[in-house]
Design a protein that fits this description.
Layout (H helix, E strand, L loop, with lengths): L3 H14 L11 H8 L3 H13 L3 E4 L3 E4 L4 H25 L2 H20 L2 H18 L3 H14 L12 H17 L3 H59 L5 H12 L1
Antiparallel strand pairs: 1-2
Helix pairs in contact: 1-3, 2-3, 4-6, 4-7, 4-8, 4-9, 5-6, 5-8, 8-9
Amino acid sequence: MPTIAAKVQSLISEQIISGQFKPGTRLDERELAQQFNVSRTPVREALRQLAARGLTQLLPMRGVVVSEISVKDLTEILHANCELEAMCARLAAESMTTMEKSELQYIHERTNEYVAEGNLDKYLDANRELHQLIQEGAHNSVISKMVGEIRDRLSPYRQFHPAETDRLAVSRDAHKEIVEAIMQGNGEAAYLAMRAHNAHLGNAALRALRQSKEAEDAAPAQEIEPARKRAAVKTAKSAATTKAAKPAKPEKAVAATRTRRVS
């Protein structure tokens, strides 16, 4: 039976994966304990386990936050995901049972309905199930675990999609190539189709993350410049006011002052 900490970890993980807790969001132990109606101890343990999975991290002065990934790190993780999931597809084509292939075909056919309806939520659920079936169909627990952990780490960034009006149809068509290759037992074709599919989505995530980072870097400069102008105007006004308020010295006094300074 799952422990309380394990249940809390699952709930927090779901909120991170679904995008409710976005990268950089601070996770407060007390608030989470109140939300899940538990003590802070299982929440603390859940956050520790999530950190071990790479979903959270402890930052100085901020506490526990949802992990943020740099462009370099995301590039490397996406590359690993492309290769490992492609390997799963190859192994699935070679080792999936008839029943497993039938289930895979069924899930893929359901996505046709969701694309026609434009039902994003149902499509994403079916998409996760399809990838999970291929992952399990590889019948290699080591690779399957690695893929699962990587997909968890990438999940907050899967909200980034190519700017395509028919992106569901594009994804469905990519899945069709993968599923057909697996059904035919063609490991190499399955490998190439899965790698191309993930590379397409990965490039979109990288572009979106780069644009986000560039916007963040540009924001401080845009905020500083108006502040400098305001400060300059304030200084000029202050100097003008001081000059106007300062009484002028009588000419004789000025002359005397100059004489003393010279001597």
